[in-house]
Amino acid sequence: KRFGFICVTNDVNLRKYCVKESVSVLWGLDLLAELVASTALLPSEAYQIAYKIHTTNPKHITPRILNRFKEKVGA
């Protein structure tokens, strides 16, 4: 907070705490989307990373979330 950092997390409780403390937050996949928007990462590369995250954590990164991400980045 002191340095103006953004907390990148998918942990709901940590996100709530950060919001309470006025710390900016991003979901993990939002960080990938930001990298695509800044042309630091190709949409296809971001989707491949998101897909790998999904395969290791399908309970939290569901097919629905993955599809929304794919549309968001234009992959």
What's the topology here?
Layout: E1 7-8, H1 12-20, E2 25-26, H2 28-37, H3 43-56, H4 63-73
Parallel strand pairs: 1-2
Helix pairs in contact: 2-3, 3-4
By DSSP, the count of extended strands is 2
| Poorly predicted tracts of residues | none
Q: What structural class is derived from the secondary structure elements?
A: mainly alpha
How would you write the strand order of the largest sheet?
1-2
Count of separate DSSP helical elements: 4
Distance between the termini: 33 Å
What proportion of the residues is helical, as a percent range?
A: 55-70%
Apparent shape: globular
SSE ordering: EHEHHH
Give the mean pLDDT: 95
Mind summarizing the main beta sheet?
Answer: 2 strands, parallel
Using only C-alpha atoms, the radius of gyration works out to 13 Å
Kindly estimate the percentage of residues that lie in beta strands according to DSSP: 5-15%
Oligomer: single chain
Textual characterization of the structure:
The structure is a single chain. The protein is mostly helical and about 80 residues long. It has helices at about 10-20, 30-35, 45-55, 65-75; strands spanning about 5-10, 25. α1 links the parallel β1 and β2 (about 25). α2 packs antiparallel against α3 (about 45-55) and α3 packs antiparallel against α4. The longest helix has 14 residues, at about 45-55. The model has no long low-confidence stretch (mean pLDDT about 95).
